[in-house]
């Protein structure tokens, strides 16, 4: 049984029954049957379904957003923006589907080879609570377009969101079994991965969860895509627009209450502008408006759960005990999972907590004497998901693009995913890519057809 807990109040909400083994078996049987039919569907049928699902999300935008806010605490404004991003994602694949699936032709010594993109089968997705719709949609939309079918194991916190996604897909006219939400605990995942009817698996989550899923997929010799944690650097050089950099750094750190893999978490600032940046950034972080996430104008609501909030507070306590200086970042004494936004300085880069991902609204700020020091600090963590660099010097931009060890770099802007661009990381942040044609092709068979002249 799953019970939704409103992190703003601590109150219990809806309950959801977990599937037993017989129900899981029935779901796998339906998925196999749906794939046999859907794999033969034409592109027009697939893109029409994507458009219809987008229409359902549009028609139910407010309800979807309110459910996310009540289940995991993000502000209603950001939840609405997330649903709108999902709508854009479905429409993107509906629009670009024919181009993405066009055959690829090349000459050979004896004639030509034509690569055809073909579906693989049922794909299992293990998804987190922090972006309960978008994380799913960036897998589900290309899954439908590919001619695959989807099985979703969503986070325990957001079973209401998972159920609504199922409702939207069904209401759009999807064939039975094309997409199934599986309310299950994590201990059921390995068995599903091992099942011969499941073709591949994708996971967004912690590196620990990723390692377990990758191990299970490896034993079954199945493809896996992993989007794991991040401790993204946000590098500010002397030529940057300092006020814009500060405003963006605050937004990057407190969006979703700091619970985003690609939130900027480590601010690395050149010594020439360090003091000015720190003063402005700290003042802005302490001024973040915290309150009821349903209210207009609130910049940050609670964290997703009391457990998650306490994990962040424990990391902060270790930092202070190790000699770091903390501004803000305290627990807010009220029912729910509340804490302040905070700033840590005088952090030793080699400290254990400095090598971890802080999944909450607390930033670490480091001083760098030059670009070499900034890049060294940026790379001195086990993660490599995203990065942001702030400079007007093209030579510095070129260095950052070449030398920062990450899957993505944003230049003078907030790093965010978009349906058109590849999304993913390196090192302990995972492997494989989502979104654009790259995410679509991860779970497709590029079959080479050899033709003689």
Secondary structure layout plus pairing:
Elements: E1 2-5, E2 12-16, H1 21-38, H2 43-59, H3 61-72, H4 76-100, E3 104-108, E4 111-119, E5 122-126, H5 134-146, E6 149-153, H6 159-171, E7 179-181, H7 189-194, E8 200-204, H8 207-219, E9 223-227, E10 232-236, H9 242-254, E11 264-270, H10 271-286, H11 306-321, E12 325-328, E13 342-345, E14 362-368, H12 371-379, E15 383-384, E16 388-390, H13 394-403, E17 410-411, E18 426-427, E19 430-431, H14 436-442, E20 444-452
Parallel strand pairs: 5-6, 5-8, 6-7, 8-9, 10-11, 10-16, 11-14, 13-14, 16-17
Antiparallel strand pairs: 1-2, 3-4, 4-20, 9-19, 12-13, 15-18
Helix pairs in contact: 2-4, 2-5, 3-4, 3-6, 4-5, 5-14, 9-10
């Amino acid at each position: 049984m799953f019970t939704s807990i409103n992190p703003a109040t601590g109150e219990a909400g809806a309950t959801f029954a977990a599937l037993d083994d017989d129900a899981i078996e029935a779901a796998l049987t339906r998925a196999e049957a749906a794939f046999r039919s859907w794999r033969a569907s034409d592109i027009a049928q697939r893109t029409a379904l994507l458009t219809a699902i987008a229409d359902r999300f549009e028609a139910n935008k407010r309800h979807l957003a309110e459910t996310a806010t009540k289940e995991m605490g993000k502000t209603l404004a950001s939840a609405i923006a997330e649903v709108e991003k999902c709508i854009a994602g479905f429409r993107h694949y509906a629009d670009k589907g024919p181009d993405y699936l066009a055959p690829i032709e090349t000459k050979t010594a004896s004639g030509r080879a034509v690569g055809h993109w073909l579906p693989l089968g049922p794909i299992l997705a293990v998804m987190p609570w922090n972006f309960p719709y978008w994380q799913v949609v960036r897998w589900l939309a290309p899954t439908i377009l590919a001619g695959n079918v989807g099985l979703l194991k969503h986070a325990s916190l957001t079973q209401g969101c998972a159920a609504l996604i199922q409702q939207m897909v069904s209401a759009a006219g999807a064939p039975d079994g094309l997409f199934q939400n599986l309310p299950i605990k994590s201990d059921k995942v390995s068995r599903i991965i091992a099942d011969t009817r499941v073709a591949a698996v994708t996971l967004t989550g912690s590196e620990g969860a990723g390692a377990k899923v990758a191990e299970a997929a490896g034993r079954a010799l199945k493809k896996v895509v992993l989007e794991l944690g991040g401790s993204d650097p946000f590098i500010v050089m002397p030529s940057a627009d300092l006020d814009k950099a500060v405003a963006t750094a605050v937004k990057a750190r407190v969006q979703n209450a700091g619970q985003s893999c690609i939130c900027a978490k480590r601010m690395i600032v050149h010594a020439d502008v360090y003091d000015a940046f720190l003063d402005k950034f700290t003042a802005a972080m302490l001024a973040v408006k915290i309150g009821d996430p349903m209210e207009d104008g609130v910049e940050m609501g609670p964290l997703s759960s009391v457990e998650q909030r306490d994990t962040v507070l424990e990391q902060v306590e270790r930092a202070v005990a190790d000699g770091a200086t903390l501004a803000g970042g305290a627990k807010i004494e009220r029912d729910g999972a509340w804490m302040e936004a905070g700033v840590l300085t005088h952090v030793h880069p080699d400290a254990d907590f400095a090598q971890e991902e802080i999944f909450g609204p607390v930033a670490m700020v480091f001083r760098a004497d030059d670009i070499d020091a900034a890049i060294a600090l940026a790379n001195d963590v086990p993660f490599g998901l995203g990065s942001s660099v702030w400079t007007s010097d093209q030579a510095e931009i070129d260095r950052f693009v070449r030398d920062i060890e990450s899957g993505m770099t944003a230049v003078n802007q907030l790093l965010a995913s978009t349906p058109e661009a590849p999304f993913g990381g390196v090192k302990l942040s995972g492997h494989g890519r989502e979104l654009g044609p790259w995410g679509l092709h991860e779970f497709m068979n590029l079959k080479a057809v050899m033709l003689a002249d």
